[in-house]
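It would be a great kindness if you could assist me with a short task in structural biology. The matter concerns a single protein, recorded as an amino acid sequence and a row of backbone structure tokens. Could you please explain, in whatever detail you think fit, how the structure tokens follow from the sequence? Thank you for your consideration; the sequence and its tokens are set out here:
___
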Amino acid sequence: MSESRIVVCGEALVDLVPTGETTFAAHLGGGPFNVAIALGRLGSRVAFCSRLSTDSFGERLLAALVAAGVDVSITQRGPEPATLAVAAVDPDGGAGYTFHADGTADRLVADPGPLPASAAAVSFGTLSLVFEPGASVYTDLLRRSHGEGRLTIVDPNIRPDVFPADYRRRFTELLPSIDIVKVSDDDVQWLGRGVDGTTPAQWLDRGVAAVVTTHGADGLSVRTRRFRVEVPGFRVPVADTIGAGDTVHGALLHWLDEHRALDSDSVEGLGGGQWQDALEFAARAAAVTVSRPAADPPWASELTGG
């Protein structure tokens, strides 16, 4: 853990993906878990802050993290079951989820205490900022990390069926502690609804340095207070889109790490050409993920350039 440059915080779970009308395959997943796997496979020094079950699913999750080169020294363990997510994949490869998360291990994460000086960036997202009591632990860690000068990135990864309406207000309250927001088009629409709804322009006004948005097959964009940059997606046969956004998240952090930009001042100072390079790298990585079933981010050897 002492050498990790990036700490990814949040849940790891098991996706039950349909293989037929009544059959499912168990795939490892969870947004933060996928981000950590992507970072480890790409070669970043990354640690995973979560709580995994000691059941057979938890053992598989732990083994996958280790195989990807992720530091698990602050990954907590507990006897509670692993969270399950039942996926429903539409004809275009998009996925919706039903979660079985009551009393599961990842919701009971404890505060990890001080992070090491080497941890320049801390990542959060998805269910970890929603399901209590873990959500309060991660929220405190997010605010503390930002206050300590670490780069913070949040992917809300909205799941409409389980996200309460007051999440919009809670998200807005967190904005001063977030340097980068990574969202999808659908996330932007959901977060903009209702009396507590806000827009990416407002996020930037409240202190966020950059908003990175995924647009499905149409590619990626970034919006800062100075400019907007767009890159197209890479056209590949799509198996499904599970984990695509998480791969973008991980690949972006890896690019920033490789280019010595894991701090808020560096992110603020990135030019349009640099953002184009970063987004193209992330889009290339995501194209590998969508070309194969479930969340299966690329290894560094599968990508060239960037």
